[in-house]
Amino acid sequence: MDAFLRRFREGDEEPIENLVESVFSNFLEGRYWSWKYRENPYFDPRLVALAEVNGEVVGCNHWLLRDLKISGSIVGKTVLAADVAVKPDYRGKGLGSSLLRFLRSSEVVKRGDAALIYMFADPELAKRFHSPTAGYIPAPDGTVQYMKVLSWRKVKRNVDSLNEEIRDGRLGRRLPKHDLSVLFKISAAPKLFIRVEKDRLVVDEGEGLDDDADVVVSGSLSIFNRIKMSKRRRWSFLKALLTGKLRIKVRLNKILRIFDALWIFEEVFGKKMT
Amino acid sequence: MGGHTLRNFVDGDEEEIVRLFNEVYGGLGGYVPRTVEYWRWCCLKRPDVRDDGIFLVFDEETGELEGYAVVGLSGNVWEFCSRPDREDVASVLLEKIINYLDEMGVSSVNLNVPGNDEVLNNACIKMGFAKVNVHKMFVGVLSFRRLISTLLKDKAKFLSRRFKERICIRVEDAPFWIEKAIYISVNDGGVKVLEGPMESPTILVKTDVKTLLSVLIGVLSLRRALLSLRIRVKPFWKILAVKSFLSHIRIDCSWYWPLGDFG
Question: What pLDDT shows up at residue B1?
């Protein structure tokens, strides 16, 4: 595969917008790219790199030259390394790294005032990918991130679509023969109750739910999130149990049923949850 | 401390908002300093923010802006700012955010606050928020010469009175975009980070990219870097001079990034 790398030029908006939106499909319903880049006061077309194969845009990398408060008294020029997008068929071929090197050797960066480059990433991903490949290190950490779940409506929607698949026979797997009810008591979230029945799932939420379930799972939202984002969810789940970060109260006679039903919870929580 | 009034954003509030943001977060690093132009783009024009999603709290007696929040329909609070020690203002804003997003049918709220604001952190916990660790900020270097020049900006006078040295910092694993060596001349005439090599440096410092960057941005202690030989000094008796020089220029504040700066 021979990719041709070049700088952004007028007329590239549409292919680049389509590429970014197909790769980051969850963002802002199509208004994302032009707001984030074209309307951005820090937008510099020389800091957008494109990769083309046979005239088709298959990858792009965006940098934004920004002022950043470096300390209480110093503001410095920095680069925000923003979206890198590569079409799925062209991934794993070094295109992302080539786009990165292309921008790093650009004249704007070489001759400009920027001293630092920064980005935001999932800490696990950064440890595995960004730090070894591009030398990133964690910034001085003074930010606390908070989250509060207002409702489990997306989980309910996931359960509804699973129920539809069950009804239409599209699921391809059978629900366990025995009923199992699970109550999730996650910090900063309403209680969530899911009952697995022979031919459907039942879901309910609210503070009023009592603890009378076969299984009660309790833990922090942070742990719950980490399990969800992990590539090896079952392993993360087990690790959280073993380290006591996630607690499970289960009726002895129902203990084996958990394993039968585990895939259902992976289905329900694997999709968008909040 | 008097009562307060809460209202939605109206055109013309921008300047007061920007002033408050820069004042409240002035002692911290890690964020894009707000200008009216940047704020308009970052908050007002953001596709998921509606005019009724920007809330301002004013002091009833003085009429001064005490805090504000910019809330997106994605559930992200893109900007949150309240004067330190005003838990009442923070709580009013947090309650408004929760009610607004709940009414809009949004499932969750995400909010970033500075770790050193104990009052604000307490207010978040009281309102039922939980700490999560979804994203972190990471930093890399494009030019050590430019970074050191930037860090020297307001310390040059002080350093030139204290040191008389020609320092060469050799970065052993520097990739193609980073200088392999940085030359700093400190004398009565001031502090200069030179473009090219210097004659007979009085101090030679050998290190690697990660160590030098970690020390300069304040995430690795100098003592640790020196003791572990990740920073080596020649001649060795200049070690205290190097320690003192680097400790004067390194960043010594924590970084706070509002969600709005994330993307």
Answer: 53
Least CB-CB distance to A142: which of B32, B115, B153? B115
The model's pTM: 0.90
Class of domain A4-134: alpha beta
Q: b/e per residue, A23-44, with b = 16+ CB within 10 A? A: beeebbeebbbeebbeebebbb
Place of tokens 């070049």: A6
pLDDT per residue as tens digits for the range A60-118? 999 999 999 999 889 999 999 998 889 999 988 889 889 988 998 888 888 888 999 99
Q: Which residue ranges make up each domain of chain A?
A: 4-134, 152-270
Q: Alpha helix locations (H) across A31-152?
A: 32-33, 95-104, 107-111, 123-125, 131-134
- Between CA A96 and CA A105, with CA A100 as vertex, the angle to 5 degrees is 150
Does B74 touch chain A if contact means CB atoms closer than 8 Å? yes
- Confidence (pLDDT) at B16: 97
Residues of chain A with pLDDT under 70: 1, 26-31
Neighboring chain B residues of A138 at a CB cutoff of 8 Å: 136-139, 219
Under an 8 A CB cutoff, do B37 and A147 touch?
no
Residue B63: strand, helix, or coil: coil
B203 contact partners, CB below 8 Å, separation of at least 6? B165, B166, B167, B168, B233, B234, B235, B238, B241, B242
Given an 8 Å threshold on Cβ–Cβ distance, is B48 in contact with A28?
yes
- On chain B, the residues whose CB falls within 8 A of the CB of A29 are 47
- Are A28 and B47 within 8 A, CB to CB? yes
CB-CB under 8 Å, A141 with B210: no
Nearest-Cα distance to chain A for B187, in Å, is: 23
Q: Does B157 touch chain A (CB under 8 A)?
A: no
- Rounded to whole angstroms, how far apart are CA atoms B146 and A64? 18
Q: What is the pLDDT along chain B (263 residues), one digit of tens a residue?
A: 568 999 999 999 999 999 999 999 999 999 999 999 999 999 999 999 998 999 999 999 999 999 999 999 999 999 999 998 889 999 999 999 999 999 999 999 999 999 999 999 999 999 999 999 888 899 999 999 999 999 998 888 888 888 899 999 999 999 888 999 999 999 888 899 998 888 889 999 999 999 999 999 999 999 999 999 999 999 999 999 999 999 999 998 989 999 999 86
Amino acid, res. B63: G
- Interval B204-235: pLDDT, tens: 999 999 999 999 999 999 999 999 999 999 99
CATH for A152-270 (3.30.1050.10, 3.40.50.300, 3.30.360.10, 1.10.287.130): 3.30.1050.10
ipTM topping 0.85 = yes
CA distance A263 to A173: 10
Q: Which amino acid is at B160?
A: S
Which residue on chain B is closest to A27 by alpha carbon?
Answer: B74
B63: which 2 tokens?
Answer: 């009429």
